[in-house]
């Protein structure tokens, strides 16, 4: 799916700004590193609902602040934004798919690592669930990057959306996976459409 999307971007947008995808990957890695202090601290909390809320909200806000910095520093124009969003989604999906987060030790802690994995949405190993979450993640990151390219004030909307979607997966997906996945998909599609409308040329 990611390969197909990358080829589509290369055909439609050209490859002159494809290097921005690497900056998207770097942005996601910076955001991940910025999560670690909160993940390490919140993972020690015994109150599950409080821990889930802290992790979901802080993760959403942190990601969008880092994304905003990436956009301000390195992204200019519609193609560049699409490539950067693609790189961000690529890094997240590859990391979550390839890494067994429950093996993480200090400084994250087992509980916090499980929460980070939950926020990625991969609570089911069924291929259909993984496909839906992959499409949702790509749509979200493309949409959020496009919106921030249209104007930095959109960070309020992207951060709120990110926090709400994260919270849905972290707190309710284990018992209500399908409704939570549908909610995340709707939010991501709305964000993508808004981003396309706000930042598309012409």
How is this structure best described in words?
With 202 residues, this protein is mainly α. The chain contains eight helices and no strands. α4 (78-98) packs antiparallel against α6 and α5 (110-119) crosses α7. It starts with a helix and ends with a helix.
Note poorly predicted spans. Answer: 100-109, 120-124
For the residues shown, what is the average pLDDT? 81
**Helicity range:** over 70%
Shape category: globular
End-to-end C-alpha gap: 28 Å
Secondary-structure element series: HHHHHHHH
* Total DSSP helices: 8
Q: How are the SSEs ordered, and which strands pair?
A:
Blueprint (H helix, E strand, L loop, with lengths): L1 H12 L6 H23 L5 H27 L3 H21 L11 H10 L7 H24 L4 H18 L4 H23 L3
Helix pairs in contact: 1-4, 2-3, 2-4, 3-6, 3-7, 4-6, 5-7, 6-8, 7-8
State the gist of this model.
The protein has 202 residues and is mostly helical.
């Amino acid at each position: 799916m990611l390969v197909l999307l990358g080829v589509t971007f290369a055909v439609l947008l050209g490859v002159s700004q494809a290097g921005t995808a690497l900056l998207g990957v770097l942005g996601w890695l910076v955001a991940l590193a910025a999560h670690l202090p909160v993940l390490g601290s919140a993972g020690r909390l015994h109150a599950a609902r409080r821990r889930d809320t802290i992790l979901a909200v802080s993760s959403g806000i942190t990601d969008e602040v880092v994304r905003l910095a990436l956009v301000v520093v390195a992204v200019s124009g519609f193609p560049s934004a699409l490539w950067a969003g693609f790189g961000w989604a690529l890094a997240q999906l590859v990391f979550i798919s390839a890494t067994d987060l429950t093996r993480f030790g200090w400084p994250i802690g087992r509980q916090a690592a499980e929460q980070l994995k939950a926020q990625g949405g991969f609570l089911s190993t069924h291929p259909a669930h993984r496909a839906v979450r992959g499409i949702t993640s790509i749509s979200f990151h493309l949409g959020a990057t496009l919106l921030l390219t249209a104007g930095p004030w959109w960070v309020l909307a992207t951060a709120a959306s990110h926090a709400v979607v994260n919270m849905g997966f972290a707190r309710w997906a284990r018992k209500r996976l399908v409704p939570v996945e549908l909610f995340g998909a709707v939010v991501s599609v709305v964000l993508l459409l808004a981003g396309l409308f706000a930042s598309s040329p012409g």
